[in-house]
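Feature request, filed as a ticket because there's no other form

It would be nice if the structure record came with a short human-readable summary line next to the tokens. Right now we just get the raw output. Example of a typical job, pasted below so the devs can see what we mean:
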Amino acid sequence: MSFSGKIKEELERAESAPRHCRLAEMAAIYDFCGKKSEESDGKIVISSENELAVRKFFTLLTKTFNMNTDFVANAGGYAKSGANYRLEIGPGMAADIRSAIRVTTETMRSCCRRAYVRGAFLAAGSVSDPEKSYHLEIVCQDERQALFLAGLLSSFEIEAKTIIRKKYYVLYVKDGTSIVETLNVMGAHVALMDFENTRILKEMRNTVNRKVNCETANIGKTVMAAQRQIDDIRFLIECDSFDELPLSLREMAQLRISYPEATLAELGQMSTPPLGKSGVNHRLRKLSQAARSFGYKGGEL
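Raw output as currently delivered:
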């Protein structure tokens, strides 16, 4: 099952205890999955490929209005119609339900805003697998819907952006921290922990990879520098110029030849007397300059 599927299963099981919160969640599902009255002869029609959204609306409906009848399509609940799941409520009750939903969305408390966001995501939202990328989106039918939802998220200090994709307005969040906050607002706490655990492991792997790459690059630079130093020293030996060097440089040259993989600090510890890294580097540069003065054309240190 996809990560989005797991979130929606959790949200479908989540209960909104106060009546006003149930109405807010119903309002979101109706806004994102419901057909307009002129298209359904005054009935409420909830239709979606997502069974969880339709099932959640039906559950909220029965708990909020204590009704098990007046369903046009199926007296027992919702039914599958082609590729979609469908729930129909006759005109008599539909007017009362619309009125209750409208009042709730006009006077939303913080808990109701959370419920609305939960219903909107359940109806039209998705989250990418955090192993691959950080992306949460909710597909809105029009700009009004997108701006209303963005305003609700903004009240929780979550910045959401909107783009147009074909004929829809898509509200999205790409920042990992903001996605975690959105999951918390919706009440998807299990999914939140899974997302955070994945994000922590992913960031740890990225940190380790950066350090390994950095260390590998540093090792490569050290090896190349050591090889240039050895080439300089071998040139001095081959052109019979080595014995003309000061004793301190000859000692450093012999150490570098004998310990090609040693760091500057290690060479300094083996010197007599011991030297710091700057002292070792100074002597190796002197050897390079000496090689150049005798005509060597190798690369500079």
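Something like this underneath would help us a lot:
The domain at 3-187 is CATH 3.10.28.10 (Endonuclease I-creI).
Residues 285 and 301 are 7 Å apart (CA to CA).
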